[in-house]
Amino acid sequence: MVGKDCVAIACDLRLGLQALTVSNNFPKIFQYGDVLLGLTGLATDVATVSDLFRYKVNMYRLREERNIAPSTFANLVSSSLYERRFGPYFVSPVVAGLDQKTGKPFICGFDSIGCIDFAKDFIVSGTATEQLFGMCESLWEPDMVRLDLDFRTLFPPGIFFYMMILLKNGQLNHDVECSTIMHIICTSDLNFTNASYQSTFATGFDEFFANNLNLLDDLQCPEDLFETISQALLNAVDRDALSGWGAHVYIIEKDKVTKRLLKGRQD
Amino acid sequence: MCTDHGCASFIDKAYRCDQPEWAMPHQAEARLRVDEPHEDQLLERPTHLQHTKQPFPGYHQKMEVLLGITGKDFTIVASSKAAMRGATILKAQDVKQRQLNKSSLLAYSGEAGDTVQFAEYIQANTQLYSMRNEADLSPSAIAHFVRGELATSLRSRKPYNVNLLLGGLDPITLKPSLYWLDYLASLAPVPYAAHGYAQYYCLSILDKHHNPDIDLETGIKLLNMCTDELKRRMPIDFKGMTVKAVTKDGVIDIDFDDDKVVKSA
To answer: What are all long-range contacts of A148-151, with beta carbons under 8 Å and residues at least 24 apart?
Structure first.
């Protein structure tokens, strides 16, 4: 899943034989340098294919003396899978990473014979694809940014309210536009409705952000992406009998990769 | 058989009959008479197919019991003693296990010839490694080696049809480990495991009663709970269990009471 200047990939941990769960500690995401690969499908092929790419990526790194780029890796996956066109590995891979030069998020998915599906929002794969499509379609939005502000500290005393502003298409530079504000949730001890609030203060936002650029440091892009992808995955697998039992979530940023283990429902 | 219209006998041809569907009263009957039985109903491969490989484990292969339990400082590996061929028990003292090195043990089930052939191949290679390097392979290393061999075989003309449990104790850290491998070369490290129908009976018991800190005695108690349930619920007599444990003192045989009678409900 793509966020603002970051990208996330997550998997469940179940290994099963039809309805029987064999293991609840079977990760399906593999890291090759800065690129992450998720593999769903036949368990034996998940292992075979992940080992194959570990070998190929290590050889690439020795030859080129640099890490493989996400888009290069995607093409490697594609051609490697198509090599087995008439006896395919039964896997549907997902690739996620940040472009090494531009820092742009890169995600794509494949079918079992290597047809690439590029996307700018999200890619889903596995037994819970329908549920995941539904969850992602409703939770995902472009350039997810959450700004938590305590306006008590920013406005003159007497106006006490806390608000969370979810910026949509936020231009995170000097000219944040009011039109990018999608949700304003305010709890107030004054009886402001959203409408009256907007008419009172909205016009002042340009000026406000221009004067408070340091606030932009508090933007929680990776955290919001983490929340979104985790909720999407956990709620999708809860409606699928064949997946679940915990999850791994990776958030890839420019200078770091964070891996988190979600316990999830164990039933 | 579609005798009404004089068209040739079997169902796929009956569909091609010129008459509309409602005019073929015998169609349903014909469907039942198609002479190749559904694959689920087969115990033996039909004679004309016997030169080919059975693509999945037959029912009698799933009746074989393999059980593994890890604990604080040991791994128990147990296997049923019955050697079966179809509905017949050929031997009641079979040992479906091979010791690979000082600290690992492989239990196997599956197609008759493949099992021993494959297990001894693995055994020979791990022993060769020990001789060449004067160091044993760790259980994890063996597990990945076995998976590699099985995965290569899976995509060959005649794959091994073998299910495995690999129990071991890391020779340095003394951490117990257990690996579950099936004939498709799926590998999973697990705290406890079973193969075949035994999975359906034993895993739920172990889910409830197992924890990673148990001692060997408790492990044997858990194993007894499992075999009791198997005796109670499984439709055949699996002739008791061969039980071994990997501990810091190497692989030890465990006395196990096979004659215990469990009353069914």
So the answer is: A148/A218, A148/A220, A149/A215, A149/A218
Whole-number Å distance between alpha carbons of A129 and A67: 31
Which residues in chain B have Cβ-Cβ distances shorter than 8 Å to A25?
A: 188-190
Chain B interface, mutation test: which of A13, A15, A20, A44, most B Cβ atoms within 10 Å?
Answer: A44
The residues that bridge with B177 in the sheet, in sequence order, are B168
**Interchain contact B157–A (C-beta under 8 A):** no
Helix axes A129-139, A221-237, angle to 10 degrees: 140
Q: Does the pLDDT value for residue A129 go beyond 90? A: yes
Name B110's bridge partners.
B162
Q: Which residues of A touch B (CB under 8 A)?
A: 15, 17, 20-23, 25-26, 42-44, 47-48, 87
Find how far residue B19's CA is from the centre of its chain: 50
Half-sphere exposure (CA, 13 Å, Cβ side) for B123?
16
Nearest Cβ partner of A43 from B186, B193, B200?
A: B186
Q: Is the pLDDT of residue A132 over 60?
A: yes
Closest among A166, A4, A209, A44 to B187, alpha carbons compared: A44
Return d(Cα A27, Cα A25) in angstroms, integer: 6
- ipTM for the complex shown: 0.77
Chain B closest CA to A10's CA: distance in Å? 20
- Token pair for residue A169? 């298409």
Phi, psi of A222 (to 5 degrees): -65, -35
Does A200 score more than 90 pLDDT? no
Q: Which residue of A20, A44, A87 is in closest CB contact with B184?
A: A44
Interface A:B, Cβ pairs < 8 A: 42
Q: Do B188 and A26 touch (CB under 8 A)?
A: yes
Residue in B closest to A267 by C-alpha: B207
Report the C-alpha gap between B40 and B46 in whole angstroms: 13
Chain A residue with minimal CA distance to B186?
A: A44
Which residue(s) pair with A175 in the sheet? none
Nearest-CB residue to A44 (from B151, B180, B200): B151
Pick the closest to residue B79 from B92, B67, B90 (CA basis): B67
pLDDT band of residue A180 (cuts 50, 70, 90) is very low
Q: Tell me the pLDDT tens digit for each residue of B155-199.
A: 999 999 999 999 999 989 999 999 999 999 999 999 999 999 999
Q: pLDDT grade, residue B8 (50/70/90)?
A: very low
